[in-house]
Design brief:
This protein has a domain of 85 residues. Helix content is 52%, strand content 0%. It contains 5 helices and no strands. Helix 1 runs parallel beside helix 4. The protein starts with 12 loop residues before the first helix and ends in a 30-residue tail after the last helix.
Length: 127
């Protein structure tokens, strides 16, 4: 079955990796932080999802996409540790682009730390 739609911008893995590396090298020159949107724009994609979809083509593309996303995620993580950025913005990016989630755990106990007692209450309606 033939592929539908436009041909891929990067047919071979080597040119894909070269463009990703070029993006990160450009950041060192201009002092910007890496972003998935910035990378996608630099690679001439129309949206971030196009970059992510390259992981579906084969194992080499998949590994590069995953490593690149991890590299951007690490930058956010380091910013949180160093307090080098707007924390809510960093957290927003990590949740929306890197799979982070808020997790709340609740533990229920009864009186004096014992088990929770469940009572069945019956309500009789007369009328």
């Amino acid at each position: 079955m033939a592929e539908m739609g436009r041909p891929r911008l990067y047919q071979d893995h080597a040119s894909f990796v070269a463009k990703v590396d070029e993006y990160f090298a450009s950041l060192e020159t201009n002092g910007k932080r890496p972003t998935l949107a910035g990378l996608s724009y630099f690679m001439d994609f129309e949206d971030r999802e196009t970059f992510v979809r390259y992981a579906e083509y084969d194992d080499d593309f998949s590994r590069t996409v995953k490593q690149t996303r991890m590299r951007i995620e690490d930058d956010r993580w380091q910013s949180l540790i160093d307090k080098g950025g707007f924390t809510p913005g960093l957290i927003f990016d990590l949740k929306n682009n890197h799979g982070w989630k808020d997790k709340t755990e609740q533990e229920l106990t009864g009186a004096d730390g014992g088990p929770v007692q469940v009572q069945k209450i019956e309500r009789v309606v007369i009328g």
